[in-house]
Amino acid sequence: MPISEQGYTHWTGTFAERRFPWWPITRLGIRMAFKRKFFKFAFAVSFLPAVIFAAGIYISERLEDFQFMFRGRRGSTTFLEVNPAYFRSYFGGDFLLFMMVMIMVLAGAGLIADDLKSNSLQLYFSRPIRKRDYLLGKMSTLAFFLLLYTLVPGVLFILLKLIFAGSLKLIAHYPWIPLAVVLDSLLITLFFTFYTLLISSLSRNRRYTAILLFLVYLFSDIFFGIFYGIFRKPGFCLLSIKANLQQVAAALFRVKPAFEVPWIYSFLILAGIALACGLVLVRKTRGVEVIR
Amino acid sequence: MKSFTRSVRTLASFFWFVGRKSRRTKVFVLIGALPVLMSLVIQANRLFTPGLSVDGPVVFSNIVLTFNLQFLILVLALFYGTSICAEELEGKTLTYLTTRPVSKPAIILGKYAAYAAFLVLVVAAGVTLSFLVLHIDRLGDAEAWLVLLRSLGVLALGLLVYTAFFTLVGTVLKKSVLFGLMFSFGWESIVQYFPGATQKFTIMHYLKSLLPAVSTGGEGSFAFLLFKLEPSSPGAAVVTLAVLTAAFLGLACWMFSRKEYLFED
Amino acid sequence: MMAVIRAEKLSKWYGNVLGLSDVTLEIGPGITGLLGPNGAGKSTFMKLLMGQLRPSIGRVTIRGADVWNNTELFADIGFCPEQDAFYDELTGWEFVVRLLSLYGFSRADAASKAERALQFVELTKDKDRPLRGYSRGMRQRLKIAQTLAHEPGIIILDEPLNGLDPLSKRKVIRLIKEFRDAGKTVLVSSHVLPEIEALTRSIVLLHQGKILAQGDIPYIRDLIEKHPHKISVKSSDPRALAASLVSQASVQNIQFGPEPGTVVFETGDRDTLFGLLPRLIVDRGIEIEEITSPDDNLQAVFDYLVGT
Q1: Residue C268: burial class (beta carbons within 10 Å; 0-12, 13-18, 19+)
Q2: What are B186-215's pLDDT values in tens digits?
Q3: Which of A140, A265, C131, C134 is 20 to 30 A from B53 (CA-CA)?
Q4: Rounded to an integer, what distance in angstroms lies between the CA atom of residue A108 and that of residue A138?
């Protein structure tokens, strides 16, 4: 029997083809997010609107049990009617959108910035990972959280309403709600994903990208508020990321939007921003940095 | 004392030079120019929409100043104030400073001086250009220029005190940006509208007490900014702000001298 | 020898983790090598020495003055940190000149010193390039330039030869020896034992936060009784040589080496064995081609003391 040399030997096996090469990147991104102390708090607080709206759905089916809450206030229970406007209120809620920006700041600001800082892109691209796997992995990290606050609660609301009502009345009266939930969730997710990753790729400094993420969102809304306050022209709502998201949500759920501006303009602006972000992002993520 | 002030001056010059060359400086200069853009849009709308009753001075005091006072200087001070300590730690360049014959307080003060000067310049330029754009048809109005000067003074003071505060925050806390955001858009934004003495627990209260309309007894243009304001006297406001700036910087210097900073590997 | 750097019962805890324990040493003019495996406490000692950390117990002084919060000491100290970190917005020239300004030099003085330092590390051609465009080796050379530019009397170098090509390494080693000859105090920390050996025979060996050995390399080697000295002899008749010496009390072990003609003797008394060898050449006519001490070096000292 031959004696094998106990030194380095070249492995002659074959690599197993991973079906989702981006999955380890996503898994790491999610794990790293939860390692941050503040993130856990923000993660929990962001579920508050979902909990409140879910409670509202329950109360809407048990109004007689909760009459004490509305005693002496006629017509005050209309806000608990679970209709498209109810869903739009959730998906277009200021608090929810703000908390999602905070989640993006905490979980997303350093997704690419930290890789740039530690020169990890070279390590990533020296593995059998393509640029699209890398970007998909990073996007999926953000999509995980965003869908948790949009699609999951949206579907849950529909299910809860059907269960508590004991009938398919909701779907029968408003058959577009499930599709609207899915589409609006995807819109919010895709937009914030591209937006966050682009800003994260602009610098190696996570603090700087965190502030930029917050700043752009906040200032877009401030400028809208200022111009609308002066000129009273609804068209200025196109300046605000938040207002655009709310306009499209209103269109998807077929409710009256807050501003008399065709929703398609808001959609095109959001899509344009996302596309521009995507194009710049693809250019920014390179294994080798070109110094000029 | 002489060598201390010389160290501060040298460090200020060092960081002014470094900051000038930084890419993000250009970004923040652009951010500082946002009010100018806003003013241009407003004036353009006025020109092309006849009958629009929008007064330049009103827009300047109600909007441009509000934007600067309640948002822009907070964000700029937050970033640059926390950067004083944080960027040396993140970039692992702190060693180059602390192994030079310059005292640790001089490092903090020198960097603060450089960054505060830059911020004052950026904001002053933005506000002045906005003023020119919005007062283009009444540049001869001396009172308007006094309002501008007074406003510049208030904003400069605001930048000094907020940058000092965030310098302290950045020296003490690791997650300084998050705390800073909560302070700026939580505490400062809300408590300033509380009645009585409570609003005196915000820096914004003292800044607003120095606004021109408060001292002249009128409301008018600044009505929006002065909502629920129970102002302190201008003298007391200036003294309080100066004391706060000195206290924040003093504490930051003290903390920085005593703390041990380890780079994250 | 007057101690320039002195540590007295120096200890440092990071929470519950002991970084350095009861280190007492003196470092005087000349070159001293600080070595140890990963986690030995070298970085902790360097940080304590440079005032980055405050001692938990004990003190560390430079020229009799406590280091912590005593930045005036640094006027005469040059420190080359291990981290590859710079103000990337600056050029090499700007980096050195601006740091020199912190010493209080005038603009003209700072410029001439910077020029000299950059010339020495051969970065004059690239001095106006942004630092973010520098290669690893260039960045390391720049770090050395900023360490030496103000001509300090005490030089502390943390892994100074990292990333340098062999020519640059030789040049830096030569320069450090010039500092020694000029009476300066140099403390060099490194993982690479041959580099330390090329620089100095005086070492401080740290292990698990404590000083394991300190002093001259051969002197330390002699003290390691557990590991007798190995003497390798290459001769025309190794078996006859071995047979001649096997009866000697000073010879503890004999092994035939893998190379033809080589026999390795282990002895606790090198001098006696070296005295016997010439007699064998004359009396027995055994031709000896080569005599070496394979473990009379820093690597052996390190291996024997730290243990594998």
Answers
A1: middle
A2: 888 888 777 777 888 899 999 988 886 654
A3: A265
A4: 9
Phi, psi of C235 (to 5 degrees): -145, 175
Touching chains, B (3+ CB pairs < 8 A): A, C
For residues B170 and B84, what is the distance between their CA atoms, to the nearest angstrom?
Answer: 7
Q: What gap in Å lies between CA C130 and CA C133, rounded to an integer?
A: 6
The tokens for C98 are 């601006």
Asked whether the beta carbons of residue C87 and residue B3 sit closer than 8 angstroms, the reply is no
The answer to whether the CB atoms of B96 and C98 lie below 8 A apart is no
Number of neighbouring beta carbons within 10 Å of residue B93: 18
As to burial, measured by CB atoms within 10 angstroms (0-12 exposed, 13-18 middle, 19+ buried), residue A127 is exposed
Q: How far is CA B157 from CA B119, B176, B248, in A?
A: 11, 22, 14
Q: Say how far apart CA C168 and CA C175 lie, in whole Å.
A: 10
Helix (H) or strand (E) holding C33: strand C30-35
The DSSP string of C72-103 is: GGGGGEEEE-SS----TTSBHHHHHHHHHHTT
Range with lowest mean pLDDT among C147-151, C213-217, C252-256? C213-217
- The 10 Å Cβ neighbour count of residue C202 is 18
Which backbone phi and psi does C88 adopt, to 5 degrees?
A: -60, -20
| Higher pLDDT pick, A218 / A14 | A218
**Which residues of chain A lie closer than 8 angstroms to B83, CB-CB?**
207
The closest of B258, B200, B264, B255 to B229, measured between CA atoms, is B200
Which residue type does A128 have? P
Distance CA A91, CA B181 (A): 24
Q: Is B104 on the interface with C (CB under 8 A)?
A: yes
Enumerate residues 37 to 66 of chain C having a beta carbon within 8 A of any beta carbon in chain B. 50-54
Write the single-letter amino acid at C126.
D
Cβ-based contacts of A291 with chain C (< 8 Å): 130, 132-133
- The answer to whether B213 touches B220, Cβ cutoff 8 Å, is yes
For residue A234, how many other CB atoms are within 10 A of its CB? 15
Closest residue to B17, CB basis, from C81, C83, C98: C98
Considering only CB atoms, which chain A residues are within 8 Å of B71?
Answer: 218-219, 222
SS (H, E, C) chain A: CCCCCCCCCCCCCCCCCCCCCCHHHHHHHHHHHHHCHHHHHHHHHCCHHHHHHHHHHHHHCCHHHHHHHCCCCCCHHHHHCCCHHHHHHHHCCHHHHHHHHHHHHHHHCCCCHHHHHCCHHHHHHCCCCCHHHHHHHHHHHHHHHHHHHCHHHHHHHHHHHHHHHCCCHHHHHCCCHHHHHHHHHHHHHHHHHHHHHHHHCCCCCHHHHHHHHHHHHHHHHHHHHHHHHHHCCHHHHHHCHHHHHHHHHHHHCCCCCCCCCCHHHHHHHHHHHHHHHHHHHHHHCCCCCCCC
Percentage of residues of chain A with pLDDT beyond 70: 89
Backbone angles phi, psi at A106, to 5 degrees: -75, -40
The pLDDT of residue B218 is: 46
In single-letter form, the type of residue at position A65 comes to D
Confidence of residue A290 (pLDDT cuts 50, 70, 90): low
Here the ipTM equals: 0.85
Residue C46 contacts residue C156 (beta carbons within 8 Å): yes
Question: Token match 């021109």: residue?
Answer: B212
Structure tokens at C61: 């002084």
Length of chain C in residues, anyone? 308
Q: Give the Cα separation of A230 and B55 in Å (integer).
A: 10
Q: What is the overall mean pLDDT for chain C?
A: 88
Asked if C205 and C223 count as a contact pair (C-beta separation under 8 A), the reply is no
| Lowest pLDDT segment from A98-107, B22-31, B207-216, C245-254 | B207-216
Bridge partners, residue C229, by sequence: C267
User: Is B5 in the C-facing interface, judged by CB distances under 8 Å?
Assistant: no
